[in-house]
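FAQ

Q: What does a record look like?
A: Structure on top, sequence underneath. For example:
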């Protein structure tokens, strides 16, 4: 799956989002502002998926889904920059990152806080591979409402499929656990490379097997 979609013309918004608007709402640090300036050329609020633009009802917490084109100055964009934009805009956002005729999609699971529905929680980001910017687009997934559409769009970016009956929140949490296990493996493998004592190597290998087994179980 490419996660590149063809959006209806009625949903087109096509307005440049000034960086000052993000600064005003997200209050980034001076260092983060420098990152935004150095990494991003322009941000275009390209599409707004809402009941009046795609004829899907707004139920639960998802009343609109935004599609932003982010024109990059380099091929890199830090997660802190994406979080800053998400902090400024109180809707789920799918980012189309564009650099030198290539494009990739990035988005985080975004939901209202359980403690304060006026605040949004942004979990880890998922992204597609780089693809040709003029590559083939798919039709939007068939859904009954905006919440269902959001879930299907986000799942297309997630590296592992959902389990039977698994909610989007549970799916995202499981992907977070897999990421944590992957980081544990990398650290332990680096430790193993440096370890000189045979007995310690045996212990580390045993711990590695345990973590890999846990990761495999989470991946099924």
């Amino acid at each position: 799956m490419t996660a590149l979609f063809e959006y209806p013309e009625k949903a087109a918004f096509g307005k440049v989002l000034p960086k000052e608007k993000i600064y005003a709402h997200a209050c980034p640090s001076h260092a983060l502002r420098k990152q935004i300036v150095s990494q991003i050329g322009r941000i275009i609020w390209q599409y707004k998926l809402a009941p009046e633009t795609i004829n899907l009802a707004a139920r639960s917490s998802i009343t609109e889904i935004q599609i932003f084109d982010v024109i990059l100055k380099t091929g890199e964009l830090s997660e802190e920059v994406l979080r800053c934009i998400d902090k400024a805009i109180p809707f789920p956002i799918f980012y189309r990152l564009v650099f030198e005729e290539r494009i990739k999609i990035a988005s985080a699971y975004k939901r209202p806080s359980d403690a304060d529905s006026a605040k949004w929680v942004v979990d880890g980001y998922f992204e597609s591979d780089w693809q040709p910017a003029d590559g083939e687009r798919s039709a939007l997934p068939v859904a009954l409402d905006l919440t269902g559409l959001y879930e299907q769009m986000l799942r297309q970016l997630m590296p592992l499929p959902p389990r039977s009956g698994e909610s989007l929140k549970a799916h995202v949490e499981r992907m977070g656990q897999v990421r944590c296990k992957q980081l544990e493996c990398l650290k332990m493998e680096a430790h193993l490379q440096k370890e000189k004592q045979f007995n310690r190597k045996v212990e580390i290998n045993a711990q590695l097997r345990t973590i890999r087994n846990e990761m495999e179980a989470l991946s099924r």
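Q: Is there anything notable about this one?
A: The beta strands are 5-6, 12-16, 40-49, 65-72, 93-99, 102-112, 120-127, 131-132, 138-139.
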